[in-house]
Amino acid sequence: MGRLSKWLYTCFNRRKVSTYKKIPNSTSSLVELNAETVEIHILSIKCASCAANVEILVKNIAGVYDVTVNVVSKIAYVTLDPTLTSPEKILDIIIENSHTAVIGARNKKEWRIVYFKCKISVWNSKTEELFDVYKLKHIRSDRKTHYFSVEYRKKCHGIRKVFQDLEAAFQKIEIVDVSDVFPSQNKAEVKYWRNMCIISSFFGVITMVLMILEHNNPKLSNILIAPGLSYTNLVSLISSTIVQVVVGRSIYVSAIRSIRTGLNMNFLISTATTVAYVYSCIVLILSVVKKYQHGSHTFFDTPPMLYMIVTLGRYIECKSRMHSVTSIMKLMKPNRQSVTIYPDSKNPNIYQEISSDLITESDILHVYHGMCVPCDGVIYEADTPGMFNEAVITGESLPVQKKLLDEVFCGSINEGNPLKIKVTRTGDDCRVQQITRCVQVALSKKIPLNNIVDIFSRLFTPGILLLSMVTFSVWIFCFHNYPNLAKKLDIDSYLAFTFQTSISVLCVACPCAIGLAIPLAVMISTGVGAKYGILIKGAPPLQSMARVKKIVFDKTGTLTVGIPTVEQFFYDSCSNIEIYKNAVYSIVSFSNHILSRCIKKYFENCNFNSLNIQDYKEIPGLGLSGKVIINLEQPKYDEDQSMAEDDPGTDNKDTLEVVIGNEEMLNLNSITTSEVTKHEVGEYASGGATIVYAAIKDRFFGYFVIRDEIRMMQNRQYDICPLWVSKA
């Protein structure tokens, strides 16, 4: 009881007994204090009680500002002062308290951690030298595959130099991400609990059938195989023993460890099954020794039935956790690919093919059309302005134009012509990885309800044990002082009834459902959002969303598929119509804008040639303009001679000034449209269409009606209404 009372005192008086510094109120204060944030993957966390106990353990370490443990992802985010403590010291303390843990990512700018896997059988001299050069650590082994982490200074060692040294020592290696190291543990855990669920369910069903048969025919319990030993008790004993040894082994190990670190749910389960099994064995032995002529009342059905429910719950929990964690880990993470770099920026004929993991800062990288950029950088060389889809960063599906020295982000897709970029940031320093890190850290932030749940989870296990003992004591007291009570309750053995009630208290009580409800809901919601490109920054925004009644969406690329097409093209007819269309086609061919590309695609079947263009201009947000050089013939009008007066091509000039864009572009060039055209355009615009005007020789020529297909939403009813915004 001394350890229990000390543990309870720690739960209620954490701030009085802990020696950690008070966490500053702002991030800037943490920077001033030279604080460092480190991830520690604690693989042995099983429930909310385990997570709460780890938080208390780490917070009592001097130099720790704050710690938050996510019970779903099994990651502890520790903010510490590197001058007072170190991640290695915290890791050693966690391992000393019977936990399996390993250091993950940290935010030290001068250091970088690389994870790799290899197949080795023996250590050699080169391998031992690496332990002195780099902070080489062995994480885990999976059959013949070994996983290592290497920590090195970015300024002293480049990633390619580190890779060469590792490959020389380990022969064949493969660099992996931290998310590739730990999900395999989740997969193994899912497989393990699936197998345990199958075993416990098999024997649980057998036990359930025996219970039903005994209930319908009580005489079956008196069919003996030996004096005091019935067939049903023998089968139940065998089933219970197998389940206790095979299925209960890992739960017993966790329960024994929790005695030192803090009682958890496994302690309750193991206590309930042990009491039921040991009591039943004692009763069965006494029945055989005394040679009873009837079967004894035992509780061998408790372990198989309880483990069947527990293992099923663990399997479902682990599977849900694996899917949600995998979605978060893969959030906006570009796939590994082979890239082309130019070691000598002055000689484009010398290039090298390497893996995207080996890119370093200041490398010149070739980015071809459709390639996903694997790092941050700036445009170093480009014949034409680049067009990049930055939906992974901004959520906007429309490509963004990039000129020389403009910044390009990791995860964006080049939808324009090939170009070269100069790498500025790689790995975890990239913008997209920083966003991912913010999302992961935000997931560990707790809402006020979480604090109440944590306190409840820490006190629940000892409280249930105490309640079970009180239940046992009260019934013993009642039966001892009231001898006729057993007859009134129609009970054969008051001792068996007393054990049954106390064991029932242990079986039905489980704090994990309460402790896992909030974090698992947050993790699954965030994982589903990440799958569809929606970033949810932790539990507080989700809690706020419960009060949201209306949501305003951007139409293009969000409610629509983001691939606009020309629905109709209205124009004034004349004899030079094909030449004017060719002029429009030539102008839009110079642009990589998504609307220009859809107009160009509209003219594909016309077999137009790109004409010579002069003074080409592209004004962002307005449109295009330029001069098209052609040999224009005198037009001939057969019917409507009034068109000749307004026809911009009635002269013999070989230069056509073309303007293409929105209404503001026409106003900028002092081009007007008729009232009939304005009315027609207004009807199309009110229906969600985008209007692109075309003018030639300072006169209105026609307009394109462009639509973007609405995304198919099953079982959803929606109305798209225009939102008029006044400009100040």
From TrEMBL:
How this chain sits in the membrane, per its record, is: Multi-pass membrane protein
List the GO biological process terms: copper ion homeostasis
UniProt-annotated location(s): Golgi apparatus, trans-Golgi network membrane
List the GO cellular component terms: membrane; trans-Golgi network
The record's keywords, sorted A to Z, are:
Copper, Copper transport, Ion transport, Membrane, Metal-binding, Translocase, Transmembrane, Transmembrane helix, Transport
Could you tell me which PROSITE patterns the record lists for this protein?
A: ATPASE_E1_E2, HMA_1, HMA_2
The record's section on InterPro entries has: ATPase_P-typ_cyto_dom_N, ATPase_P-typ_P_site, ATPase_P-typ_TM_dom_sf, ATPase_P-typ_transduc_dom_A_sf, ATPase_P-type_domA, HAD_sf, Heavy-metal-associated_CS, HMA_dom
Its Enzyme Commission number(s) read: 7.2.2.8
Tell me if Cell cycle is a UniProt keyword of this record: no
Q: Give the transmembrane region(s).
A: 192-213, 225-247, 267-289, 455-477, 497-522
**What GO annotations for molecular function exist for this entry?**
ATP binding; ATP hydrolysis activity; copper ion binding; P-type divalent copper transporter activity; P-type monovalent copper transporter activity
**The HMA domain covers which part of the protein?**
36-102
Among its keywords, does the record have Translocase?
Answer: yes
Task: Family membership, please give it.
Answer: Belongs to the cation transport ATPase (P-type) (TC 3.A.3) family. Type IB subfamily.
Please name the PANTHER family in this protein's record: ATP7, ISOFORM B, P-TYPE CU(+) TRANSPORTER
Protein name (Swiss-Prot/TrEMBL):
P-type Cu(+) transporter
Organism lineage reads as: Eukaryota, Metazoa, Cnidaria, Myxozoa, Myxosporea
